[in-house]
């Protein structure tokens, strides 16, 4: 049994009444007056005066009218949602460093145990951070890989720099390393988004690895180039966004393990070293929440590397 301590880098998500005229009351009724003459003339009857009911102007009712109180309209503005509709809220306590123990490794036909691929981890994961308090995190993350639209393939062959620009065009940003990790593992500190066991029937992982036979172009140019498009079709193992219904994290975010690698940002570093890759792709690789690759700079193009975007949540 092998014990590994995985450090999680931390990035703080900066989050962040009427005046009215009184109506006239109706005049009091005037009593009828009978006049008795002492002479022989007939008694004259004085007709009572008609009541003239004045139409009351709108305003405060008169003192003799019943007062009906109307409920005040609810003028409080509706609370702004924490995240846009196409994003999920990620909120909770994040442990900076954990200890994961693998109970069973995948078997390679030629080389025996593949220690990059653990089939089953010990439960629960231990938090071994030196910090006495966990990091409180709250932010929004795209539910799917970019372009974040069900039925489309995740975009790959995109550099870290271009991914950052595409997120900014949507008033979003690339996720940080710790944001990706926490969205994947949750407060339970799962090794995989789906739990403690690896499952290729739920996530798009463990497919054969095929090496490109030619230089691959950026995504728009590759699609327009017959040779590049044909080669991408040969080696492509992506599945349409939303197809892997069970490959979902505790926060309702899909394909954080497998389908496509994802660019993340390490903003505390200097260019061109702010780029890192998380999550794994469709090949037989680690595909864990904590695993990270930092070997590529911000201009690297990978046929298996895509991204998704994050955004600060609306303050509570």
List keywords for this structure.
4 helices, 4-stranded antiparallel β-sheet, alpha+beta, 316 residues, paralog of FGE (formylglycine-generating enzyme), globular, 11% helix, single chain
Structure description:
- The chain has 316 residues and is of the alpha+beta class.
- It has one domain (84-312): paralog of FGE (formylglycine-generating enzyme).
- It is 11% helix and 21% strand.
- The protein contains 4 helices and 12 strands, in the order ββββββαβαααβββββ.
- Strands 1, 3, 4 and 5 form a 4-stranded antiparallel β-sheet that branches. It has a 4-stranded antiparallel β-sheet with strand order 2-6-12-7.
- The radius of gyration is 36 Å and the shape is globular.
- The two termini are 44 Å apart.
- Residues 1-59 have low confidence and may be disordered.
